[in-house]
Amino acid sequence: MNTNTNPNKTALRFIKDLLVVSVYLHREGGRLVQEHSLTQQQFVVLNEIVECGAINQKDIVGNLLFEKSNVSKIVKKLSDLGYIEISTSKHDRRVTIINSTERGEVVWRLCIEKLNSWSVSWLKAIEEDDLVNATKIFEKLRGTT
Predict the structure, then answer these.
(1) What global pTM score does this model have?
(2) Residue pLDDT, tens place only, 60-106
(3) Which domains does the chain have, with CATH numbers?
(4) Which of 66, 76, 92, 107 is the most core-located residue (most Cβ within 10 A)?
(5) Taking a C-beta distance cutoff of 8 angstroms, is the pair 32, 117 a contact?
């Protein structure tokens, strides 16, 4: 049966393609940030902290679809590197608030510059409208988990 007429096959093909691309992005993303003692996942968390401003760990877990224990380890590592600071909420002492440090923002900017250059090169064959549509698809996927 044609893949385009069988939703199950189409969905499976989409997921398999995502898995292949995710392996590539994980590897290349790691290479782009490794000089700053970061893994790809650590950079994703740092990016979330920088872009969101003051944020708690629960929101990071929800926004990024990471496991709670994984985020805890990443937050500790980012703190040890001096890229973030952790404080207690003024409103609820049980809640920790995470902010980027000046050092963390400098490293983030350097990584973003590399990521931008690499992504422009890698995605040059993809039309802008296709990238916009793909972004919308990823937003929908993040909302369904």
Answers:
(1) 0.85
(2) 999 998 999 999 999 999 999 999 999 988 888 888 899 999 999 99
(3) 3-143 (1.10.10.10)
(4) 107
(5) no
